[in-house]
Amino acid sequence: MHKHICGGNKITKGWCVQMTMPSFLRFSGLCSIIAGILFLSMSVWSSISLEEIGSYADLIGMAFLLLGLVGIYLRQMNAVGVIGFLIFIFTFIGAVLWAGHSWVNAFVIPVLEEFSPQILNNPPEQIMTGVAISLYPFFIGIMLFGIVTAWKAILPRWGALLLAVVPILDFIPYGSYVSQPLAGIGFIWLGYSLWKGSYEEGKTSSS
Questions:
Q1: What is the model's pTM?
Q2: Per-residue pLDDT tens for 33-91?
Q3: Which stretches of the chain are DSSP H helices?
Q4: Is 133:97 a contact under the CB 8 Å cutoff?
Q5: pLDDT for res 103
């Protein structure tokens, strides 16, 4: 069913926009690609000591990722069932929480580094608890989301598997150096497949 965004009178007819599921999936795929590119760029900014720019890239990337996750889920929602829906909800909430953490990194941490560095050198327990609440739901959610996406293989399996291993790599010595780029590649891979997909109205959960 097509959703008309405008009326049918002569004045607005020429400007009428139709939003269909295929067009939203392509838009969501583009958002995932943008998020992946921004996540990839973070390793570049870090390598040239421009972490502040990297923090902005992370925040903007998380904003686009939220839109990308919706499309990735919708593309396979009939295949993944109730379990997939619950994993998506958990992942989405985790991504929202981590986006909040990214906002703090972009706008709060630089101020604290300048005016109250002692807080960062010895952070209160409440701050560390907040970081954990943001970190673990997102990491666990992305891992499960990658696994269920790879399992059903509606979207590229290897792209999904990259997302599944990224949270594990972050807890392995030196793994954090490759986890961010791999996450970027994974989201670009899935997003590109979503963006270039050939869809039929009402049949968006199968290739």
A1: 0.84
A2: 999 999 999 878 776 767 788 889 999 999 999 999 999 999 999 999 999 999 999 99
A3: 10-13, 21-47, 51-107, 109-115, 117-121, 125-152, 157-169, 176-196
A4: yes
A5: 94
Q: Identify the domain containing residue 149 by its residue range.
A: 21-196
Reduce the DSSP state of residue 9 to 3 states and report it.
coil
Please report whether residue 153 resides in a domain.
Answer: yes
Determine, yes or no, domain membership for 4: no
Work out the average pLDDT over 111-128: 88
Q: Under a CB-based contact definition with an 8 Å cutoff, are residues 102 and 65 in contact?
A: no
* Any domain includes 15: no
- Residue 153 Ramachandran class (φ > 0 left, ψ -120 to 50 alpha, else beta): left
d(CA 143, CA 136): 11
Cα(101)–Cα(37) distance, rounded to whole angstroms? 20
Q: How many structural domains does the chain have?
A: 1
Residue that has been written with the tokens 């990214």 in this structure: 102
CA-CA-CA-CA torsion sign (49, 52, 56, 62): positive
Cβ atoms of 105 and 55 within 8 Å: the answer is yes
pLDDT recorded at residue 31? 97
Residue 98: is its pLDDT beyond 70? yes
| Beta-bridge mates of residue 203 | 200
Tell whether 12 is covered by a domain: no
